[in-house]
Design goal:
The protein has one domain. It is mainly alpha-helical and about 500 residues long. About 65% of the residues lie in helices and about 5% in strands. The C terminus is likely disordered. The strands form 4 sheets. The chain has a 3-stranded antiparallel β-sheet. A two-stranded antiparallel ribbon has the order 4-5. The chain is built from 19 helices and 9 strands. Strand 2 and strand 3 form a beta hairpin.
């Protein structure tokens, strides 16, 4: 085992997380989420696997909960009655079982694009056999399940919605800080910073250019990963800006949109177009109904501004040539490029693996693909894909149960807004995964947003139990944003009628 310098910092943070899992657990883990290339140690004896700092801290958070009997009992009871956690737990159990069963059951009978590389670092088609990818993908998926359960439980506790908001703010700050630093490559202080955090045995694509422009990767391993993470954080901060009209969320969403733009990533751009399109359709839907809120108006105006800025790039002479080159490289000839041809071959082979195994898949971590859909059916088959879809339906892919115009108390209104913002962020991340995801595990940022949405949705329906550690009168005070103004609805009509009578 080879420890790294940043591992010392992670060890100190882990001690703090175990000592105070509620107060420090979420913000500390959230601050380490963008450091995807930071490893606390490398294991040469186990396929040179890296123990990433954020995964180690997630283990410390889980240990901190397990060491407190009442808290552990509360977490277990909460998870046992939460359908989203139960379904993802069932999916994880089946996927891990398939990782060790299917490669032996179909060994040598089908060919796969394995996660292992050849001696020349190529990804080649090879007969199916057990690999280290089965173990590592099982480990990552198990950690994701435990993080989902732990974060959802901690968010459901008194003051948890406020804590998860601060945690996502910490993620945004760290993400933007390293994005700004990466704009100035070649400076000795900048190189020293990235040498300190890039300690995992991953390939770092830090010097890519497109149409002569450098691609920013921040603290991530490649521009696509940086752009995808920027999309998730942008969706969270922009949704919060629509809800609160706060300066912080406006500045953060503006900078994160710039991060998406300068990543020059096809995945991030396509996800942004789809997300803005969904927001636009959502706003149009409420526009034709008797009642549209200021949130929908903001989203509609934002979509129009983004579309206008994109079109202006093709008319302004200084940017026209560059915009055309970027468009051609990212969308025009993407499928004909070496990367596009290679990724298409992965997807085709993954679909063929699904057919060859009679729909059962080749096992978690056995086959590489370039889309979440192809990864699911190729690795865990129709059973795993069905359970995963059920998990999405019970976590964040569902509407708020109450009438949006019905009177809500401040706590319920705040929970609804956290649910909406977390759902937007999780949707943005899963869009990037559907476009170009190579593994089933969506990452800890995705799981934290899903956990926040799940806990916010269930918070107003959760019955009080004796396992709730904090009393209701100890709930932290926080201010609730004002209710969005609603135009043309019964709520607005009622307010006008009341004003006229008084």
């Amino acid at each position: 085992m080879e420890f790294t310098p940043i591992g010392i910092l992670a060890l100190v943070a882990a001690v703090l997380v175990v000592a105070r899992p509620v107060a420090l657990g979420l913000p500390v883990i959230a601050a380490f989420v963008p450091l995807q290339a930071a490893a606390i140690a490398n294991l040469p004896a186990v396929g040179n696997v890296s123990i990433v700092c954020v995964h180690f801290l997630a283990g410390a958070l889980i240990a901190g909960i397990a060491l407190r009997p009442r808290m552990f009992a509360g977490a277990f009871q909460y998870s046992a009655r939460n359908w989203a956690i139960l379904l993802f737990g069932a999916f994880t159990a089946y996927a891990v079982l398939s990782a060790f069963l299917m490669p032996r059951l179909f060994e040598g009978e089908v060919s796969v694009y394995s996660h292992e590389r050849t001696s020349n670092y190529y990804i080649a088609l090879s007969p199916l056999h057990p690999t280290t990818g089965n173990f590592t993908q099982s480990m990552y998926l198990t950690i994701s399940f435990l993080v989902l359960a732990a974060v959802a439980y901690m968010t459901s506790r008194a003051g948890g919605l406020s804590r998860i908001t601060h945690a996502f703010n910490a993620t945004t700050i760290v993400h933007l800080a390293f994005a700004v630093v990466s704009v100035f490559p070649g400076f000795p202080p900048v190189d020293a910073i990235f040498e300190f955090i890039r300690t995992a045995n991953y390939s770092i694509h830090a010097h890519h250019t497109l149409a002569g422009a450098p691609r920013i990767i921040g603290s991530y391993t490649e521009p696509a990963a940086f752009g995808s993470a920027s999309m998730g954080l942008f969706a969270w901060n922009f949704t919060r800006f629509m809800q609160t009209r706060g300066l912080w969320h406006f500045c953060a969403s503006t900078l994160l949109l710039a991060c998406v733009a300068f990543s020059l990533s096809t995945t991030a751009y396509a996800a942004l177009i789809l997300l803005v399109g969904l927001w636009g359709l959502h706003s149009v839907y409420y526009l034709v109904r008797p009642g549209i809120s200021s949130d929908q108006i903001t989203a509609l105006v934002f979509g129009a501004v983004i579309a206008s800025c994109f079109l202006l790039l093709f008319f302004l002479e200084p940017f026209r040539e560059f915009a055309v080159q970027v468009y051609e490289r990212l969308f025009g000839v993407k499928l004909q490029s070496d990367s596009g041809v290679e990724r298409a071959a992965w997807n085709v082979q993954s679909l063929q693996n699904f057919v060859d195994t009679k729909g059962f898949g080749v096992g978690l971590g056995s086959a590489r693909a370039s889309s979440l859909f192809a990864v699911l059916i190729g690795n865990v088959g129709f059973i795993g894909a069905g359970v995963y879809i059920a998990f999405l339906n019970r976590s964040f892919m569902r509407p708020w149960a109450q009438d949006r115009n019905a009177a809500m108390d401040p706590e319920t209104r705040y929970a609804r807004r956290i649910f909406t913002a977390s759902r937007a962020a999780a949707l943005a991340l899963i869009l990037t995964h559907l476009i170009a995801g190579t593994t089933i595990d969506g990452g800890l940022m995705y799981m934290m947003f899903v956990a926040a949405a799940t806990a916010a949705y269930a918070s107003i329906r959760r019955p009080k139990t004796v396992l709730d550690v904090e009393a209701a009168n100890l709930r932290p005070k926080f201010s609730f944003p004002k209710r969005p103004r609603v135009f043309g609805s019964s709520y607005a009509a009622g307010r006008r009628e009341q004003d006229s009578t008084t």
